[in-house]
Amino acid sequence: MTSAQSPRAPGAQPLAAGESLFEAPSYAEWGRGVLRVRDSGADVAMLWDSTIAEPTAALMDVVRNAFSPSVTSRYVSVFADGNRFAIEALAQRYGLATGQILTTTGATGALALTLKALVEPGDQVLVEQPGFDVLARQAREVGAVVGHVRRPAPDFRVDLDDLADRLTPRTRAVLITNLHNPSGARLTPAEIAAIAAVADRVGAVLVVDEVYADFAREAGDPPAATLAPNIVTVSSLTKVFGLFALKFGWLTADAGLLAKIRAAAPDGDIGISKLSHAVAAHVLEAPAPFEAHWTRTLAATRAPVARTAEALLRRGLLEGELQPYGCMYFPRVPGVDDTRALARRLFERHGVLVAPGEYFGAPGRLRIGFGADVQTVELGLARLAEGLAAER
């Protein structure tokens, strides 16, 4: 074992920067606390991030080339209709018509516009569980009554019977992710179309967050919005490309549904940046360096995660298979119901940060993220294995 992989020294003290970390009421607040721990310089291995680390050098090259010696032609108005070059590049990449695309400030901006158009106060929105808590929070912010639809382990497929039982005449939307956050499970186009058909029984729209979908691009799946007229796809450059700084997202839908979303927000997403969306246009027109970055990252990190998972499964310290795509692993910890407390002990005693399943509605599980550099991931895996063995 190299020094970079060595477990934390025995007897290490709890880290002051994270004293209140596991008291955070939501995953978003927990994540902000994690960033404070990271920025404090504390001796802690981050094994939580499901976003690919920013390809800073490639991003700098794009910006430098776009704005020197003259300003790029992609630096155009984004008022109402968005950056036309970015929209054209998205259309080409995903096999869409330009009129099917509306650009936004990230996937959360796209989801907000969609829910504003679809939901009135008191309407029902069904959100997958386990799931990313931001989806439910966005629905509550427009006055929705939030219910849940099950995605049970081990395969985390949507339970269609459960969905049908939970629909009401006031169900306006069903929110899911693909790849699934937190498990990384992939739904096939046929499965997504089946979910949309069930939702359509009460005139509900299926909203599919596809921020992780490009990890499975080799499968050849089209955007979910192309599968049925009652589906909206939202996505961004944040997770797979690691370009959170650009705040570039989009939504796509059938012409009639998109017209309804546009009518509810005639100025579009007024928060989008002319500058960052010009850069996004260049990224989308020449994505090879960014594709290479995430591909290299996962080629380096997925193998040690798979080896460690296999070893921990053999020893009975974890249960649940690693999904074939993406940079998330969501195993169950046998005999442990309170994984928030477990994650706290792993942090304080063993210097490794993993996300407790409670933040995704699945106590007893841990979400392990491996989008960082391989040295960080390997260190985190070594400390996790040590910590789980000690806890048992």
UniProtKB/TrEMBL annotation:
Coiled coil: none annotated. Residues 81-379 form the Aminotransferase class I/classII large domain. The keyword Transferase applies. GO terms for molecular function: pyridoxal phosphate binding; transaminase activity. Keywords: Aminotransferase, Transferase. This is Pyridoxal phosphate-dependent aminotransferase. It comes from Phenylobacterium kunshanense. InterPro entries: Aminotransferase_I/II_large, PyrdxlP-dep_Trfase, PyrdxlP-dep_Trfase_major, PyrdxlP-dep_Trfase_small.
